[in-house]
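ERR on first pass: missing label on line 2. Operator R.T. fixed the label and resubmitted. Corrected input:
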Amino acid sequence: MANQEAPRKGFADALIRLGEKHDNLVVLDADCAKSNMTNLYKNRFPERFFNIGISECDLVGTAAGMAVAGKVPFANAYANFLTGRAFDQMRISVCYSNNNVKIVGHNAGTSAAQEGATHLPLEDISLMRSLPRMTVIVPADAVEMEKAVEAAYYHEGPIYLRVGKLPVPIVTKKEEPFKIGKAIKYREGSDITIISTGIMLDESLKAAGELEKQGVSAELLHIHTIKPIDKEAIIASAAKTKHVITVEEHSIIGGLGSAVAEVLSENQPAKLRRIGTNDRFGVSGKMDELLDLFELRAHRIISTANELLGHRVTS
Amino acid sequence: MDFSKEKGEFYNNLTKTIRRHIVKMTNHAGSGHPGGSLSATELMSVLFFEHMNVDPDNPDWQDRDCFFLSKGHCTPVFYSVLAEKGFFPVEELMTFRDVDGRLHGHPCGEHIPGVDISSGSLGQGLSVANGVGLIAKLDGSNRRSYCMIGDGELQEGQVWEAAMTTAHYNLDNVCAIIDWNKIQLDDFVENVKGVKNLGDKFRAFGWHVVEIDGHDIHAVNEAYKEAKRTKGRPTAILAHTVKGKGVSFMEDTHDWHGMAPNDEQLEIALKELA
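pass 2 clean. output:
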């Protein structure tokens, strides 16, 4: 089994490294510091950590004020509450005011697992993508998370960063360059393009490998930045393969699938299938069980690819 | 202590000038919010001309005092005070709400000198003021952070989330000014959702409370001084005001919350404010 690590650990490690270098990095949390691992930052830099309590709207507004005062605040809370409750604060106090605030949505996707539907953010990317000026980053694993946190700090402007709680396989490499807005091509292929975001890179890699064995040449693009999206990479790949599948641990409405559909339909129409959660809420379950339930698995990518290509599938 | 005779005269003239701007700007635009601007005129004038440590020539100066207009619709008074203070030319006031201007209906922090944050969605200002207050403490800076909130706006839950934060962190560098004009868009505040016992509410949250007549320039000045003197906790200035103050037909009615005077009404208003 591949080496595993919780994305939140990569987040916390990177934050502390940046905190050592930069006095202006301040961290806020909404009473989830233990869960979000921002308590590690708090232990290291107690004077630069602020627990704002269970009040996400106040959290985001306070972070905006800190940005006005010249700091680079990272505002942390569970993604579902943060993006749902504090959307308007992000819209006015952060994005419209063009304040340099980093919004960190924790417990990404299915990673709050047995907490159930209230705690499973499956709409956060959609919400954040709609905000003018907001950059939306969804890393694949703890290694890429560290690079994303660093890029977020140095980027001037609002960022939404999606961070998962539970350990997932490390599939990216430390030495791989990370640039906001730039897709990473994990496999070259000619028959079909698989576009993944977040932890779905792992299942997408497995699916591409299996498809190759079946004689299907799959290209794999990893999109860590959903906004601004790498249009050129998507258009170039779709021009070649004419068939595209998107895979995300998020609703198919408004997230990666929608973003890719927008690019393709206006620039390079291609046959498209979106894999994600289908306009539904989550349930309680182990993360693996939830990924099975939502069919966010390689076998679904493979069967979808074959269906899209018009191949007869023997099961 | 009262202002000197000269100072008193200065503020009488200034507040009249600002009230004239308010009715002229809203008349120019054919829309806007004169009622809550006229009620806040003394509070804003004395704050910016007597207490705010700002430099109109260097509006983003790092150690400046900050002001956040949480009741963001009251741009007529805010822009007028900023222009009179020298942040931008007074003539620009007559571009209020123009599509090719920068003086939007609600303030845009990015484009207007002296505006520290965009606002217009009620309830957000005090959180932002706290952010500045917390960083001032962290940096050992003496800068102060002011936030003006409407009384109807106190119905927004975020105000009270923020009020807990200010008190919890003992932010004595944060001052909230409540423009308690008793009227909101639809009706009297007490008829919509009352904010009775406001002093007790803030005191219960851990704030120092000063209750004043918000049109008495001397009392307003003393309240800001008291807020500066008060250590260890934040100060809320509860300012009793009259919505539409200074223009007889705009006073004490919700009709002029968000309506502009026509040319005839403007003429009457300007006569009253001569």
